[in-house]
Predict the 3D structure of the following.
Amino acid sequence: MDLEKALKEAETGYSLKLTSTDEAEMLAYISTVLELHAKGDLLHESAIDRVMALCVLINTGNRQELSRTLRGFNNGGNWPSTTGNPSGGGRGNL
């Protein structure tokens, strides 16, 4: 089975259809998660939790929360601080 066909079949099971902007933002988000994990700034469990949270938002069709999650984190959101101090105005790290 080719990859494009497999992706289309997998996508039909989701209740939220992604736009090209959604897909680009998800790739940027996942890249950031992987980079932080590779540098040791994000624990393995946290990296998996963040990616799985995206899957849940897509599966439940929660476009508003998906957009908030992607745009917030891709625009300098609450990623772990390399200095050990929480970022995001004292909200702490997730």
